[in-house]
C-alpha cells in the first residue's frame, strides 16, 4: 500500500506535470503488427496509422511534424526486402497549437484515470478479510445450531433480557471470544477510517479534477473550426462527463455507507463486549455499563436490519448474512450489490423515478444503486476511452504515404537474430529540416554505406539526395604513414547533426586489428562546389541495390578522427554528441568500450606516443569493459566468478600503426 501511495503523491505533483507538458513531444511506436501509433508525451495515443506492410525497422517523426519516415522489412523467398516510406503528417503540422492543447488534456485525463485506479487499489488493500469474520461465524452458527430460533431472535433475547442461549453463548465465548471481538472492532475502525480518508483525499479530488478537464475538453470541441478536423466530438465527451458524474455519486454513496457502518458497528460491539464480559463474570467498567434507551433502540434497529437470515444470499455467496457492507463496493464484479442502499422513503429519489422528463435529463447524472464502485469505474473508463479514441483514428487516417523507395534485398536478415542492432538508421536534422537514412548495400563482397536524405516537407526536393561513401585511406598524423585497404561498413549512427560515427572492417587486416572507429563529417560529404557531380541518375521506384552503378560514390580520406579498435571484434556503435561519447559493442554482445570524443589531439597520436605518455605520467582516459562470466573466467585463471564482472582498465585513445 505504501508503494501505491508513493505513486499517488508523484501523480499529484503539479510542478512535474507542468514541466513535462511545456512543449509537445510524441513517442512513435511500430512493430510487426501492421500499424504505427503516436503517443503524446509518451502517454496518450493521438494517432494510429494502419495498413503498414511488413515489420517496422526504424521510425522518425520530423521535428516540424510535416512528415514521418518509416523503414519496413518484408520477408519473402528466404530473404527480406527493405523499403523506405515517407508519410505526410500535414494535419499535425497545420493544427500544431490545437494538437498540443488537446494532447495536454488527453495526458491529464490519462494520468487522472491512473490516479483513480491507484486510489481504488489502495482502498482494496485497506479492506481486510478479517472484516468478514462476523458473517462467516454467524453463517456457521446457523448451520450448527439445533434450535429453530432465528439468529436475530437469539441476539434480541440477549439485548432485552441479558441472557443468551447455550448455543449463542458457545458461539460468543468459544468462537468469537472477547479478545477476538475487540480485535475485530479495532480492525473495522482502522480499515474503514483508511478507506474513508482515501475516498475523501484522493478518489473524490481525482474525480473532480477529471470532470474539470473533460468539461474543458468539451469547450474545446465546441470550437468546431479548430478541433472538429482533429476528430474531437462534443457528444462523446458529454457521455464521458456523465459517466464521471455517476462515479462521483457512487463514491459519495460509499462514504455514506462507511459512515453509517462505523456508527452501527461501534454501538453494536460496545454492547456485545459488555454482554460477553458479564457472561465471564469479569469486571465491567462503569463508563461501559451505562446504556440509555436510545442506545438500546439503536442496537435493536441494527439487529433487525442486519441479522435476518437470507437463503438466497447463501445460494449466491455461501453465507446467510451481510453485516459488513463496505467490501461489496470494492469487489471487481459485474454482480449486483448484495445489500444495496435502502432508497425507500427517499423523497428526491421517488420524485426522480416518477418524473419521465427528469429521469432522462442530461443535467442529472444517472445513478446505479445496485452496482459496485468498481463496476461504475470500469464503465467510466470504457466511455472515456471510446470518447478519446476518435481523434487517434481521424489523425491516423490523415497520414498518407507520399514516397516509397525500395532499398535493398538482404539475405542476412533471415540469419540475424539480434534485431535491435541492425541497419538501417534514421535521423532528423531539426535545423535544416531533413530526414537522413543510413544503410548499406552489398557491392563486390563489401558493404558500402549509403546516405539517403529527404526534406521533411514532401513538396520540396533536396540536392544530393542519395550518395554512397567509400573509405579510401587513413593517415597517421605524426608519422604521415598511410593505411590503405578495402573497408566494409558494419554499423553507423549519427553522432550529431554534422557527424556520423562508423565502424569499419578491414577485409584484409589480421584478426584483432581489423576494426576501425571513424568520425565522418557530413560537411566533407556534401560539398556545394561539386554537388552537381554527385547526383543520383537512377530511378527511386527501382530497388537501389539493383542500380549500384547509378549511385554516386564519394571516396573519403582521413587524416584524423579515426582509430584502430584493437583486440575487439567491434560490430555495433552508438554515439551521443550531446554527451560527447561513443559506445562500441562486440559482435557477441559481451564486450563494450566507451570513448570520450571531445579531445581531438588524442585521435591524432601515433604508436610512438606510448612510451612518451607513460614516461610523462600524464592522466589518461578510462575505458570500461563489461565482460560476461565466461570471458572473466578465461582471463582470470582459477577465479570462480558467479556473475558478470565490471573491469576498469586504462587505455589511451591513440591510433595504432598498421600491421
From TrEMBL:
* Residue stretches of biased makeup (Low complexity): 633-643
Is tRNA processing among the key words of this record?
Answer: no
Organism (species):
Ursus americanus
Q: Where is the composition biased (Acidic residues)?
A: 605-614
Task: Give the UniProt keywords, A-Z.
Answer: Cell cycle, Cell division, Mitosis, Ubl conjugation pathway
Can you list the GO cellular component terms from the UniProt entry? Answer: anaphase-promoting complex; nuclear periphery
InterPro entries per record: APC4 (IPR024789), APC4_C (IPR056358), APC4_long_dom (IPR024790)
Anaphase-promoting complex subunit 4 C-terminal half WD40 domain: which residues? 426-596
Single GO molecular function: protein phosphatase binding
Chain's gene name: ANAPC4
One Gene Ontology biological process: cell division
Region entry Disordered, spans = 605-643
Keyword Translocase applies: no
Identify this protein by name: Anaphase-promoting complex subunit 4
Q: Which domain of life is it from?
A: Eukaryota
Q: Which residues form the Anaphase-promoting complex subunit 4 long domain?
A: 84-282
